[in-house]
Amino acid sequence: MNFIIILFFFIFIKQCIFIDALKIDSYQQINQTISVYGSGFGSDPNSLEFSIGASKYSGANLILHDDMQVNFDIGTRGVYNGMLKVTLSGNSFDYGDIEITPTITSISFQSSLNTMYPSECTIIGNNFDASKIGAEIFYNGINITNCNASQWSNDFPVAYTCQIPPGVGSFVIDSKVGSKYSNNLTLWYEPPYIGDVLQVLYHSNSLITIEGHNFEPYPLNKTIVSIDGVEAEIVFSNYTHILFKHDNTLKPTNGSFFKVFIDVGGLNVTKDSQLYNSPSTFASPKEENGKCIINLFYPNWNYTDFFFNEISVKSYCTLSPYPGYSDTDFISRLICDFPPSIKSGSAYFTDTISRLDLEILLSPYVITPSTQQINDWPLNGGEISFYGKHFDKTMFNGSSNNLVINYNGNTFTNYNLINNTFMTFNIPPGNGTNNLLYISSVVNSPQPPFNITFVVPEIIIDSIVQINQSLLIKGSNLIITSSMIITLSGIDITSYCNNNVSDIICGPTLPIGVKSGQLLIESNGYKSATYILYLTPVITSIYPNLFDTTSNETLTINGVYFESIDPISQKSNNLQILIDNTVVTSVFINSTSITTTILPGVGSNHQIKVSINQTRFSNNDTFSYYQPIILDFKQTNNQFEIKGNYLGINSEDNKVYYNNIQIESKVSSLNTLELTLLDSFSNGEVYVQVGNQKSNIYSTFLTPIINSISKKPYVDGSSVITVYGNYFSNLNYQTKQSTPTTFEFKLDNNPSNSILLPCNYIDTISYSCEFTTKGYGNAILSATKTDSSNTYISNSFNLSYQEPKVIQSTSLFYKVAGLINITVESYSADSLQVFVSNSECTNAIALINKQIQCNYQADVPPNSDGKSLNITVISNSMVGINEVFYYNTRHECPNNCSNHGICNLVNGQCKCSNEWQSNDCSQEKQPPLPEPSVDNNGETTLDGGNNINFTVSITYLRETDLNGKTVKVLSLKDIKWNNQSQISKTQSYFNGTFDNDSVQVELDVTFFKDEENFDFAGDTILIPSNSMKYIILISNWNFTSPLNNLQVIYNSQTTAFYDNGCEIIQANSSSNLDEESKVTESVTWFQLVSGNSAMDAKFSRRMFVDDRVRMASVSILDSNDSLYNLTSQSNSNESYKKLIAITTPYFRSNVKLDPSFSSLLQPSSSTSECENKNKWKIPVIAVLCSVGGATIVAITATMIYKSYKNKKINLEFASKLKAIGEQ
Questions:
Q1: Are 769 and 758 in contact (CB under 8 A)?
Q2: Mind telling me which CDD domains this protein's record contains (predicted)?
């Protein structure tokens, strides 16, 4: 029992191990069978599957040898290369991508394999497209490129049609797919065939031709030809002919027939043939260039001897092809150079079967002289010597050879014959040319006659090249002899000249006085030669060669051939000096010296040359201006001066580089440059580039300059100011060392006490300094920069403490005395005096938060022009004045606050009791709204949907003239916000500009969660809870006229109609003014109502204009205003909108405005069935900040009855919709 358990356990473990060890180690392809070797294949082919790419093999397709080898046939349907994978019972193993080997099963041809023309064949096989790019077919290892797939099976090519090139013997065909080669098949071309063997002359050693077909073209590597078993040398072959050499000393082994054997690529054929016929010859001797030429038919030169006068002369002869023929066995040319001892006589050719006799007559041949033209023969004649051969008086048989000399048609025998190779002859006196002479015998010589010329030699000058002061004379017969004389312009220069091979060179200098003119060469026995020579000027030196850049100096040019007069024509030459190819004024002294004036200039290596008539130019010499030198670098405030030597007199000649940055400069005086450095420059170095010359590098130290401060320090010592100036950089460009700057100031009332300020470096033009010292009056601020051990102290900058800065004031009713609070910055609490206009505000005391309180009698009348009254604050004798005080005016509250609040008669606003809300406290207070959040786009949002939304945004800035006509409009949709900051959770800041306009818009957006009084320009405004407040600052508006106004346009809008489930409610608006009235009073509050939600806007009655307090002017634009049309283009036509304009007067710097917006939910007034149906509605209101504005959204979350979907729209609803459609 235990054994059975152990055996079962072993079998179980073994199966588990095998399953876990499923893998492929290798594979092998033989034809179409794949053998896979590995482990874990199991024994059940039905649970086993192999795949190659997308092709799968399982079940009956598999032959399992054991669990380590499986065979399967991939068939003929075609398999693509791909992943070899095995899967067994859900387990799988990827072996990797494999390539399928192609196989060739057969090759067929449409006709026999011709050796002369290509043959078409069809190659049939498998796996030709396993790589998906087709197969390559190889012929003897060479890829056949003209193969195309011609048969297909299941979209796989199974046959290729190819053009097999002509050839002989056998060849091998195989294929390649990817990197795999198939099996190969061997095939044979047609065997050779002998038709005829062409006979040649016996012993002629001519080529033998075999005619037939299926031969191998030349050059050969598969063909063997043998005659009676002796291999012959094949010299040429094509498809139908074979030419070969045969040893003609051999005799046939079979009577008169030879056995001709041919083997072509392993295929052979034999034929019995007679190879030779009886030979025939001919000869026609002639002479050419002293050699005898004999033309022969069917020569058998290797077995033929040649005798002349019974002497073998074969060694003097060379067999060569006859012109136009390459076959020397058929017709040849024999060229014989017989020795001089051979005379005219008999000759013959002989071989083993024949003899050819002939007579050869040799004419005399002259070797020297080698030319047929004999020049310069003396007029009185003279002896001439001839060297040559065949100068024979008799022939070989003793008969006369009639050797004579023919000269000018006369025959002479008075020659002196030394031997048959050398003779002399005295040419009689004569003259002229065409005196013909030749030697003849019984055979006239084919050699042309000699032409004897009696000519007097002539000197010829072809050209003269001037090289500086030397002359190179080229021509003929220029060999200098003792009798030769060379003159130039009448001056003998012979002693200055020498032969240079066949030319004459005169120099390196020529005699003094030589000038342009006629060059004459004379020599005894020669005709003289003349040449008109114009000499090119030559500069030998200049003095001086360095010049000042600022003054005129004389330059002397020394040289030769400075010809102001043409020596030949005696006309004036245009003699000029060119500096850098520009003509300058010159003074001619003589032919060896010229002067010119060098004007102030810059740079080095200026080219100077002399020109005559702009056709003859001298060599170049160069001069330079002195290299610039910087001697001093001075600073006067932000102006700098460079003093030196050799600076350019023109500003454009000088390029100043400070710390390797080019700086504009100008010449202020001789060798002095003025320049302005950038404010940000540091200590470092300077150099000047004058022309192409660089000065020395001069170390520089810049004294800092204080230009301005960001604001005056306050007398209480609480100020941090920014000091602006030049050259505050804290690093030396040249030495890379630190150059710190310190700041100190002295009060005028205590000049002996220097106070060092704690300052921090900001950048190269600014420091941040803390003024912690209390004081008043004037002071002097200075900066000290330290560079290594040197210190540089700035200018003394005069500053004063900030006089009292009056910002705003609370108000009183006219002639109602009382306390006023004045917001003031920079004053001393122990020294205060306050005036409203000229009336003192008594008992002035300092409060917290920069407030001064005093008792004002309210006795100064208001200004008739509507401007605010001056308030003057005096502290420590420093006076601060600003127009900030307005008297209160009485303003009634709407509906007397509905008896649910307290009316503020100063601003006409109600302060509602805790249970009431709205402008007139007439509505029961609703649940508070969620706190908004502001994103980086200025959008402030309360949680909720958008069933009701209110949008208030600044949409336009418009300038108008006195008549109210539009001058300029900017749309806020075109603004670019350069700064978008969230200062705190409830406050955001935006700063934006426009392209192509100087105006700047700043928005400060603050969320007020709780109700709060806010003082703006002395006007106290009650900010309700859950309100958005804006402070708008507009700067740099470029008014067209100081009489114009600027309007800041707000767009307030909401949904035009609201469906509360029972009726359609149209949006409406109201304000503290009747919209139809003509009253010009400013709007202080505005309300927009949609459904049960309302949006309130409050506007201060005051504004800051260039820091002065002015009364505000807020109005609701008439519906006919053109801006309504512009606004409608970007908003839905289903919106209800009102445009509100805050109009400001002309300002130089800026204007500050202060609108605020709040939202509330009004209680429903309906007591109908709708009230019961809608009692589930929970109101939520959101404030969304858009472009400089706020969007107040009221959301109603409702549990809606299903019957609501089927309610009927009453007649009133239908009529309102109709009215909307008609608009």
A1: yes
A2: EGF_CA, IPT_PCSR
Q: Quickly count: other Cβ atoms within 10 Å of residue 495's Cβ.
A: 9
Split at pLDDT 50, 70, 90, the class of 587 is confident
Tally of residues, the chain: 1223
Work out the number of other CB atoms within 10 angstroms of the CB of residue 489: 17
Distance CA 55, CA 100 (A): 12
Q: Answer for the pair 441, 417: CB distance below 8 angstroms, yes or no.
A: no
Name the residue among 858, 822, 815 with its Cα closest to residue 837.
858
The pLDDT of residue 1147:
95
Q: How confident is the model at residue 276 (pLDDT cuts 50, 70, 90)?
A: low
Cα(936)–Cα(980) distance, integer angstroms: 6
Q: CA neighbours within 13 Å on the CB side: how many for 148?
A: 3
- What number of other Cβ atoms are within 10 A of residue 409's Cβ? 6
Q: What is the pLDDT of residues 1017-1029, one digit of tens each?
A: 888 888 888 788 8
d(CA 79, CA 126): 9
- Residue 1016: count other Cβ atoms within 10 Å of its Cβ: 21
Three-state secondary structure call for residue 219: coil
What are the backbone dihedrals phi and psi of residue 470, each rounded to the nearest 5 degrees, phi first? -100, 155
Burial group, residue 828, by CB count within 10 angstroms (0-12, 13-18, 19+)? middle
DSSP state of 1042: T
Distances (CA, A) of 722 to 196, 707, 757: 120, 11, 12
Q: Which amino acid, one-letter code, is at 179?
A: S
Q: Is pLDDT at 723 greater than 50 in this prediction?
A: yes
Q: How far apart are CA 346 and CA 357, in angstroms?
A: 8
DSSP label of 601: -
Q: 839-844: which pairs have CB atoms within 8 A and are 24 or more residues apart? A: 841/871
Provide the residue type at 498 as one letter: N
Contacts of 1182 (CB under 8 A, 6+ apart): 929, 930, 932, 941, 942, 943, 944, 949, 1191, 1192, 1193, 1194, 1195
Angle at 404 between CA 402 and CA 409, to 5 degrees: 125
The three-state secondary structure class of 907 is coil
Of the candidate ranges 447-451, 998-1002, 1173-1177, the one whose mean pLDDT is the lowest? 1173-1177
In sequence order, the β-bridge partners of residue 1150 are 1035
**Residue 125 pLDDT > 50, yes or no?**
yes
Q: Is the separation of the CB atoms in 26 and 35 below 8 Å?
A: no
Q: How far is CA 763 from CA 354, 680, 728, 767, in A?
A: 122, 8, 7, 7
More confident residue, 949 or 160: 160
Closest C-alpha to 854, from 866, 872, 880 = 872
Question: What separation in angstroms does the CA of 994 have from each of 544, 1012, 1202, 1210?
Answer: 65, 35, 53, 51
Residue 869's SS3 state is strand
Q: What is the pLDDT of residue 1021?
A: 84
Q: What is the pLDDT of residue 203?
A: 55
State whether residue 518 is helix, strand or coil: strand
Q: CB of 872 within 8 A of CB of 795?
A: no
Strand 276-277 to strand 200-201: parallel, antiparallel, or no bridges (unpaired)? Answer: parallel
Distances (CA, A) of 345 to 307, 310, 339, 398, 523: 11, 10, 14, 10, 55
Q: Residues 6 or more apart from 452 whose CB is under 8 A from it?
A: 374, 377, 427, 430, 435, 436, 437
Instruction: Quick: pLDDT tens for 277-293.
Output: 544 455 568 888 889 99
Share of the chain above pLDDT 70, in %: 87
Instruction: Give the pTM.
Output: 0.51
Nearest to 541 by CA among 559, 517, 554: 559
End-to-end CA distance of the chain: 104
